[in-house]
Amino acid sequence: MAYSDKVIDHYNNPRNVGQLDKSSTEVGTGLVGAPECGDVMRLQIRVNPETQVIEEAKFKTFGCGSAIASSSLATEWIKGRTVDDAMAIKNTDIVKELSLPPVKIHCSVLAEDAIRAAIGDWKKKNGAAETAQATTVAVAH
Amino acid sequence: MSTVASQVEAPAGVSLPIYMDNHATSPLDPRVLEAMLPYFTVKFGNAASRNHSFGWEAEQAVETAREQIARLIGATAKEIIFTSGATESNNLAIKGIAEMYRERGNHIITQVTEHKAVLDTCKRLEKHGYRVTYLPVKADGLIDLDDLKRAIDDKTILVSIMAANNEIGVLQPIAEIGKLCHEKGVIFHTDAVQAVGKVPVNVIADNIDVLSLSGHKIYGPKGVGALYVRRRNPRVQIAAQIDGGGHERGMRSGTLNVPGIVGLGKACEIAQQEMATEAAFLTGLRDRLKAKLESELDYVHVNGSMEHRLPGNLNMSFVYVEGESLLMGINDVAVSSGSACTSATLEPSYVLKALGLGDDVAHSSIRFGLGRFNTQAEVDYVAAKVIDIVKHLRQLSPLYEMVLEGIDLTKIQWAAH
User: Fold this and answer.
1) Is A38 close to B340, i.e. CB distance below 8 A?
2) Theoretical Cys-Cys bridge with B292: which of A21, B132, B315, B383, CB 3.0 to 4.6 Å?
């Protein structure tokens, strides 16, 4: 298979590889995929609680070169965006940017899932805390 | 932490890309090419032309090749049928025997890690009223002889078990299988494509009745193969699958591929002369590669028996690294992976799955196929490169990080997609 130059670039020089403190309330973690399927992505974000801007993004990916490139690109794109802005990123944007062939579209879908999962985790952490304070009644049932 | 991919450079004397995929195909030996060349242009006759010297010359060359092939496997020349390759040989053997012995029974026994040329042929026969038993393999890739013994019944006409596996290189106990088949009066066919010319195979000593072999796996040309069909003790009969001029004693019609046949013969002759030294050489290279990889990397896993294995085969899983991403990093080395991403079906290797390995281990596998023209310097370069890339990819691998942190990956609820 021929890889696009951009995929090769992300593979050779992946951006934002690493780990953030999962226990921090400012951090959201998305872990998507499964080892049996041949790809697992972990994408993490650190969100500024005041501005809701994603100030830091880190990833680690087990998967093919296109999966690595998709998640590396995703971290680049979400950094500096607000949470709501980041939610607007579509897998098709990733396909276009990396010139992924049809058999690799699932890599981009996984990257979109990872972004959403990380934001969802962050919202749960923060939203859940707010809800707990605001509506004690709701917890009862 | 540096996450930049490999900067390992090839030393002087190692030219890139390196070919290390000799189970897929092998380069033509220059000595084979030399033997073939006159049969394209000067000695171009049809071996079936009985009334002029062009035909006689071609026929003589074909008969010489038949002798060379027969000698390598302990057969006689009359027992060799030429085909277009091992896929055709396997089809002809299995379908031809099934058809010929239909009166005697309809049961065929094979095993799960056979090549698709055998498995899919058996599947087709199932649609035509045949019953097929697919024996499982043990964790080392070998069948259990007791399973085979139990599977044979009074309707069994054929046992088809490969001599050496194309992915993991394991050698099935064909001598024991042959002995058992002869005791039970069942025909024994073996797909010996990967074994012939690499390890000793003898149709008499191993009680083989029908055997498939191919030119291009043994430094011969593509598009030519052969089928050995036993003529005595017992005499095996095969129903032709291609109708035509009645070539090859009626078993395989079609004008003979004379240059290809000459090449196959020459390849067999060279293999016979050089097998012992070549096997020792390849075993040395293979063990060197394995030792280097194991000394520098943790969580590596050899797939299949090391004891019963082709000299040039090493199939290893680099756990927590996905195979296609590894191939991408070593793109100046030609090897294969059992990863789903590298297969047309997007399924991980059925051979590795049959060993009881999880899909995740199959996804991480690389097959190194060493051959006649590989060198120690190439092995050293490939080892260094693989080590470098695996380390790079493990820095990116969430699974590797989790395992180092002591997390049990099997306890995680993965959201399969």
Assistant:
1) yes
2) B383
Report the predicted TM-score, pTM, of the whole model to 2 decimal places. 0.92
The interface predicted TM-score of the complex, written ipTM, equals 0.88
Token pair in block for residue B59: 């026929």
Tokens of A104: 């690799």
Which positions of A are annotated as active-site residues? 37, 107
Q: Which residues of chain B have pLDDT under 70?
A: 1-5, 340-346, 416-417
Note whether A79 contacts B: Cβ–Cβ < 8 A.
Answer: no
**Is residue B341 flagged as an active site residue?**
yes
For residue B360, the distance in angstroms to the closest alpha carbon of chain A comes to: 5
**Segment holding B377, helix H or strand E:** helix B376-396
Q: Which two tokens stand for residue B228?
A: 């050995």
**Minimal CA separation from A133 to chain B, in Å:** 30
CATH 3.90.1010.10 at A5-131, yes or no: yes
Handedness of CA B391, B393, B395, B401 (dihedral sign): negative
Per-residue pLDDT band at A132 (split at 50, 70, 90): very low
- B182 CB contacts (<8 Å, ≥6 apart)? B188, B207
Question: Strands B336-337 and B187-191: what pairing?
Answer: unpaired
Interface check for B205 against chain A (CB to CB < 8 A): the answer is no
DSSP state of B52: S
